[in-house]
Amino acid sequence: MPAARVAPATDTEPSADTAQPTDTASAAGEAPPTRGFLAKATLVTAVLSIAGALLGLGRDQALAHLFGAGTETDAFLVAWTVPEVAATLLIEDGMAFVLVPAFSLAVARRARGAGTGADPVRALVASTLPRLALAFVGVAALLMAGAPYLVAALAPGLPDPGLAVDCTRLTATCVLSFGLAGYCSAALRAHRRFLAPAAIYVAYNTGIITAMFVLGGRWGVRSAAVGVALGGCLMVAAQAPSLARQLFGRRRPYAPEAEATAAQDPSPLDGHEVTKAPQATEGGEVPDGPAPSVKHSVELALIAPVLMFALCRQSQVLIERFLASTLPSGAISHLNYAQKVAQIPMTLSLMLCTVTFPVLAQALAEGDTERARSRVERDVAVASCMVLLGAAAVFACAPQIINLLFQRGAFTAQDTAATATVMRVYSVGLLGHTLVGALVRTYFSAGRPTWYPLAAMAAGIVATSWIGAGTVEAWGVRGIAAANAIGITVTAGLLLSGMGERRSVPIRTRRVLHELSKPVRAAVCAAVAGAFCASRVDSPELGLAAGGLTVTVVYVLLLRVLGVKAVAPAFRTALRSVTRRLPHVRFR
User: Which of 48, 124, 342, 499 has CA 20 to 30 A from 327's CA?
Assistant: First the structure.
């Protein structure tokens, strides 16, 4: 197949994303993606992620409306810990850090010389999927059997542990479904297919909402746990057809010049071996002969630190619920609702990093440190500017947002006030959460094991635990949220200071910190101005509009005054990608 076409660069700033493909990239049949490709992929991912987030809000609204913020909801939210941890380990972080680079390399080697022989992608699937699926089934069974002990460990002060145990046994099924969904997502993103992976949370939340309204009257809050099990199955079903097309669709013809390049410049990733394939004829056909010998493995030495990091990061939620279980009824619910809403800006700001993760892995695999450094610095700048705007809006308009989203049915005005206060505290840590999500990818993209991210996350967890335990008695849920914000900021600082060629990508740390300080100052001023304007209006709708508009105007103006230029090129490229057809982009 001809190499993918690259749209001409129109920005004056040179970019590795708009450069012509190297021999290796061309040989792989995948040119380095242009800014237009990344913009369109990010746009598709963001639109579907927003849809999933809105459905997630609808799910939380339904939970609050049907069951309030009391004992039943607290019991379910303890069981909700299982899908939260599983999503982090198996879909969002965790396995993605291992599987995306592995599939990216397999896709490149398939294009180099699969021919009629063994397909490297199929070989990778055959060697990893059965064992992983068996492990997922075993873990799910252990969680079901040990549900009483798990609930006792997570929330020893829970008034109704029996209900939490029932819900935990139902939600434990998501270990298998989330594992398969995360596997499909990693494979599809390595193929530069982003539509189906971005749609999984739309399917997931649709299943939960449907189950609550259909079964809620008969089964109570257990219906939400049934919805988790159903939603997990829908996540897999949403991606299976697209993955099947990539695995069993029409094969690409073998490129002999690619094999020559590959033989001279083998990939530095361990665990993958390829022998020379037969030469193609002038017509592009591969003659009969020995097929390429392909060996693929995902090493335990690489998986262990990734999974331990993801589990350690998710333990922040476990610490919060453990501490909140000793507080009056409803505390866990207030933390949950506040966290779900506050983290929406973080989720959206990391969409670009999700799309560029395979790009970063490819650059490191090819030894192109300069392109990797440029990619990381640009992603950090854009993601930080976006999340700080969202954090300022959340801080300024927290009471209005919670009032409009949740205050109805069993969710009272007192619940709104408590949740809004917690959400404002959470907003302080959103930049830290975003930096951790953006930077940790660089540590795991090169395909070599590293324990530094785990050490940084462990330091943040220690800070969260000590601060939370010391403040929960005096400050209640506010102290728990403050501990979360401080702990994740400590982790972000350690990850940023540890960036270097030995562990990760050698970025210009001082320059990055200097540039980050500008949107931070702008966000603080915008949040104060927005909160003042929102509080002057009695109507929550008008207050939200006034506060949100004030935050946006003040933030954008201050970015211009301070000379922040990271966001404008990204928005211009996104606009061009919408108004112009890009024939080299594929979203099947």
Answer: 342
Backbone angles phi, psi at 509, to 5 degrees: -60, -45
Q: Which candidate, 374, 377, 366, places its Cα nearest to that of 439?
A: 377
Looking at 224-366, which runs of residues are DSSP E strands?
Answer: 272-274, 294-296
User: Whole-prediction pTM value?
Assistant: 0.65
409-438 residue pLDDT tens: 778 888 889 899 999 999 999 999 999 988
Q: Under a CB-based contact definition with an 8 Å cutoff, are residues 253 and 236 in contact?
A: no
Comparing CA positions, the residue from 572, 75, 586 lying closest to residue 321 is 75
Cα-Cα-Cα-Cα dihedral sign, residues 195, 201, 207, 210:
negative
pLDDT band at 235 (very low <50, low <70, confident <90, very high): very high
pLDDT of residue 142: 94
Structure tokens at 256: 């002999």
Following DSSP, what letter does each residue of 146-175 receive, concatenated?
Answer: THHHHHHHH-TT-S-HHHHHHHHHHHTTHH
What would the 3-class secondary structure string for 466-530 be? HHHHHHHHHHCHHHHHHHHHHHHHHHHHHHHHCCCCCCCCCCCHHHHHHHHHHHHHHHHHHHHHH
Task: List 294's β-bridge partners, or say none.
Answer: 274
| 42 contacts 351 by C-beta, under 8 angstroms | yes
Backbone angles phi, psi at 363, to 5 degrees: -60, -45
Strand pairing report for 294-296 and 272-274: antiparallel
